[in-house]
Design a protein that fits this description.
This protein is mainly α and about 55 residues long. It has two helices and no strands.
């Protein structure tokens, strides 16, 4: 399976828009709050993702 050039462009645009949205959601946090949020989300993900395989 491979992406077409148009598919790659769409992914690039969607990713850029996603990153801009994320920046706008987080801009009201202090650096300490952002670090705390990252730690919480990392712990949350560790609890829901299966452990790495052998």
């Amino acid at each position: 399976v491979a992406l077409t050039a148009a598919g790659r462009e769409l992914i690039d645009r969607a990713f850029a828009e996603h990153m801009e949205n994320e920046r706008s959601l987080l801009e009201g946090l202090t650096p300490q709050q952002a670090a705390e949020l990252e730690a919480l989300l990392t712990a949350w993900l560790a609890g829901i993702e299966p452990p790495p395989g052998p």
